Amino acid sequence: MIPGRLLLLPSLVAASAVDDVLPRHVLQAARSTRHFLAESAKSARAFLKTIEHPVALPEIDIVEIGHAPDPARIDAWLQPLRDGLDLALVSEAGCPAVADPGATIVARAHELGFVVHPLVGPSSLLLALMGSGLEGQRFRFVGYLPQHASECASAIKALETASRGGETQLFIETPYRNERLFAALLRHCAHETRLSLAVEVTGPGETIATRTISSWRTLDAGRLPALRNRPAVFALLARQGSALRKP
Q: What would the pLDDT profile of 91-107 be if each residue is shown by its tens digit?
């Protein structure tokens, strides 16, 4: 029996028309697969309903792997591959195993000799970088910044310092805390540092804007992007060679 493939299946990043975001061959692969691994089973069911999967949802095998997949369960989760069936790892939003759980599952599939097939789809991180106008040859994604105010301030200053060598720093926040992070960036970054906000990428309310910190500070509230409860990617790049100074 020929083993199945582990398909890395991107999902939507924002509320948008499926055909506008996912290529036809990706939709065909998703609709022909009946076994899925997902961070959230509820989100996976919503996605499969959105793409009009031809099989009734109760008849589709969806395994919830959670935010931190249990290594002891991975081999069992990969059983469909041994049975000659394709198995799709689907992300909560965007590309699986990128700023999302699943890398350990992919690594184990490689160890066992299964074919791993990444499918084309949206990555909010790369789309944000593409649209930022910041350094795209060298960049780093650092995930979430600390929640405590003093630790967050230290992290921001460290990222700004790191970016002075010409490396764009990308990071995200839980949507309901976006405004707080934005305020902290304006408070702690130097005037000439450039900050890009990519909000609701691929969605109907998509907004991507890049300004210096001093320019962001001068904007009236009505001209600021709506950040609260909307998915956003932050990108920061300080002026190369500039000295660190208080804003």
A: 888 999 988 889 999 99
Task: Kindly state the tokens that stand for 247.
Answer: 């804003």
Same structural domain, 113 and 140: no
H/E segment holding residue 185: helix 178-188
Question: What's the helix, strand, coil split of the chain in %, to 5?
Answer: 35, 20, 45
Using one digit for the tens of pLDDT, what is the confidence trace for 169-219? Answer: 999 999 999 999 999 999 999 999 999 999 999 999 899 999 999 999 999
Is residue 148 located within the same domain as residue 113?
no
Residues 193, 238 contacting (CB under 8 angstroms): yes
Could you tell me the two tokens for 100? 């999302």
Residue 133 located in a structural domain: yes
- Domain membership flag for residue 212: yes
- Picking from 61, 11, 10, 14, the residue whose alpha carbon sits closest to that of residue 33 is 61
Q: What is the CA radius of gyration of the chain?
A: 20
